Amino acid sequence: xxxxxxxxxxxxxxxxxxxxxxxxxxxxxxxxxxxxxxxxxxxxxxxxxxxxxxxxxxxxxxxxxxxxxxxxxxxxxxxxxxxxxxxxxxxxxxxxxxxxxxxxxxxxx
Length: 109
Description:
- The chain has six helices and no strands.
- The chain has helices at 2-15, 17-23, 28-37, 44-61, 81-89, 95-108.
């Protein structure tokens, strides 16, 4: 459930510019605490792991390698990482993509 919370939190943040503006400058532990305050608890480790899998999935979907040359990472210059995640990555994926990533994570464990 908390893996789904990571995605729901990122999608919520993508839809709320005010929330993104508040959170993008905070430390990761503060962002995780804010997510819990929104009723979407997850750990820092879950956040890192889910985000990494989403980025790898998106690279594959785009026909790219997930390495230091992943083209979406160019969009991070001049923005905060959370901003990149919710503006560029999350909006590039749909519900079927999120479900596929979570299903593959379940199959691995």
